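ok, trying the design again with the full structure, not the truncated one.
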């Protein structure tokens, strides 16, 4: 029988479902009889409970289950017959106007939209590039040396300077009262490393062991400590000890201590360059992918299913709540998280997902098995035991699905770049690494 689909607005549709009451009654009776064989009740042996007692106890819940199952089956059959791509769950309500011997229901739901993508040859995309320079290798070397630095006590009259490890006592007061977290003894920090606020470090520079001073410190308005954010405190600072940093020399011994196979300075620099190039490649891919997706969304025309946006909002709120839990926030499960702050991002995600899916389908951009394998091998190459990593991915369907999704995004990125008007744009290594 042909299914009549009524268009309500944009993506919203309605189908009237009809079920014979006899089908419902027969299924309820069959399930109650099956239940009666195993149900246990006081005063009756198992399997010997009278049907009228079983029906009285479980009839309502069984009837509710049957109605849900049968209406769901009827909706699935009708949607399939009408060749509809349903977005989200239908809202089903009973219709009192059914014919005798029939139960009718109104199923209101949304369908996925038609996605129209304009000519991609008119899209403009910036494609970024960056190089690993000697300066970048030197900077990484400095970081590795700092991680292995040692400290020796400075002379009593030596002033504090950047790189020194300072051991200090401090006490901060706001309106004459010491505030929470504003007092410490024998506290250590590296001068110039940004561990402390700018005014605190500036006050420390030039001081000598045993010296004390007072100074004002204005906390930023967005400071993480809400009790002091935007306020000015008066600090008393005393230098207990100053230690000068000693960085290891860049030599073969350093290379050996870092576990470099070719334990030479040249081998160390080569290894750093290889790792930086891998990181640069990944960051450029992400940045260029973002550029492509922005251009792709701009060239697409579609309506958004409200159900899909709501589902994405729910996922984002749940993710935010999980983040609060991980950070140890008290009563994370009770904190109100307004959905509207995620609305633009949720809409973009849904829009982009639909557009990408359409492009993949229309141009056969699905992930091929050899592409997935190649991507996993590339990911594994940076680990000490690549084969263990490859097996780790292959042992879990969800992890493999995540890799397939990345490969599909890469395929879409390359496809759009092959069609669009591409402008090459070089950026510095530092600028690329500074971006989130």
């Amino acid at each position: 029988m042909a299914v009549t689909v009524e268009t309500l607005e944009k993506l919203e549709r309605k189908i009237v479902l009809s079920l014979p009451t006899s089908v419902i009654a027969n299924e309820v009776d069959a399930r109650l009889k099956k239940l009666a064989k195993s149900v246990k009740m006081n005063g009756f042996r198992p399997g010997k409970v009278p049907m009228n007692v079983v029906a009285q106890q479980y009839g309502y819940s069984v009837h509710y289950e049957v109605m849900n199952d049968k209406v769901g089956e009827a909706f699935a059959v009708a949607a399939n017959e009408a060749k509809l791509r349903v977005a989200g769950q239908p809202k089903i309500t009973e219709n009192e106007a059914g014919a005798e011997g029939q139960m009718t229901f109104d199923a209101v739901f949304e369908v996925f939209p038609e996605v129209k993508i304009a000519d991609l040859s008119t899209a403009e995309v910036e494609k970024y590039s960056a190089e690993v320079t000697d300066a970048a290798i030197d900077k990484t070397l400095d970081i590795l040396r700092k991680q292995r630095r040692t400290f020796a006590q400075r002379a009593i009259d030596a002033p504090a300077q950047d790189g020194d490890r300072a051991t200090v006592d401090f006490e901060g007061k706001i309106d004459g009262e010491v505030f929470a977290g504003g007092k410490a003894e024998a506290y250590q920090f590296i001068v110039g490393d940004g561990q402390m606020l700018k005014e605190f470090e500036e006050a420390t520079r030039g001081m000598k062991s045993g010296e004390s001073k007072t100074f004002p410190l204005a906390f930023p308005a967005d400071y993480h400590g809400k009790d002091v954010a935007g306020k000015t405190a008066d600090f008393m600072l005393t230098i207990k000890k100053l230690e000068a940093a000693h960085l290891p020399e860049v030599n073969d011994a350093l290379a050996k201590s870092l576990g470099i196979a070719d334990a030479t300075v040249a081998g160390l620099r080569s290894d750093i360059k290889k790792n930086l190039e891998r990181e640069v490649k990944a960051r450029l891919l992400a940045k260029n992918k973002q550029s492509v997706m922005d251009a792709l969304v701009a060239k697409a025309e579609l309506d958004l299913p409200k159900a899909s946006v709501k589902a994405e909002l729910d996922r984002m709120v749940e993710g935010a709540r999980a983040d609060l839990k991980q950070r140890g926030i008290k009563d994370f499960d009770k904190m109100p998280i307004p959905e509207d702050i995620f609305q633009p991002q949720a809409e973009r995600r849904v829009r982009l997902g639909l557009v990408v899916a359409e492009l993949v389908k229309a141009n056969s951009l699905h992930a091929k098995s050899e592409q997935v394998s190649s991507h996993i091998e590339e990911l594994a190459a940076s680990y000490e035991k690549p084969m263990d990593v490859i097996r780790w991915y292959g042992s879990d369907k969800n992890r493999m699905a995540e890799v397939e999704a990345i490969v599909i995004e890469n395929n879409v990125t390359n496809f759009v770049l092959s069609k669009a008007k591409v402008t090459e744009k070089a950026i510095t290594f530092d600028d690329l690494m500074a971006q989130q």
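Keeping the full-length input from now on. Residues 313 and 345 are 9 Å apart (CA to CA).
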